[in-house]
Structure formats: C-alpha cells, structure tokens
Amino acid sequence: MGEIVELCAKRLPKYYGIDPISDLQVLTPMRRGDNGADNLNRVLQDVLHKNTLSLRRGATEYRLGDKVMQIKNNYEMRYTTEILGRFAA
User: Fold this and answer.
1) What DSSP state is assigned to residue 74?
2) Which tens digit of pLDDT belongs to each residue from 14-38?
C-alpha cells in the first residue's frame, strides 16, 4: 500500500509533471482487503485530496471534487458501468 501511495502522491507527479487528482487513476481487481478499491480510495483520498466539504453515505465519504465511477448498470436510468464523473455541490 505504501508503494502505491508514494507513486501516486510523489513519484509519478514529479516525474511526469502531472496533477495526481485529475491525471491519475488507480485500478484494482477487487473491492475488499488492504489493496482493494474501498481501502485504496480512503487512503489516497486522505493523502491527495484535502478538500473538507464532504458528504458521508454509509461508510463512504465523498469530498467535493472527488472522482466517481458508476460500477453497476441501471438500465431504467440508462446508466452503464464505467461512467466517470466528479462529485460536485
């Protein structure tokens, strides 16, 4: 986990001259566990995203400007997986 955080927060942005929030996306094949999406999102959000305006839904906290991704199809509303967006007020 520490290697992923260091790559996203320091090494990749410095080497490529990029913004880690808007220019990076970390993919993982699972949701649970130390290297799963749930934990990775929480850890990277705390390190990279200092915005304090947030909304909590269950165990998940969404901060203003966070990237979000649709991961479940909703055919009635015409949402399909892999739609990307930003959490906005």
Assistant:
1) B
2) 999 999 988 998 888 998 998 898 8
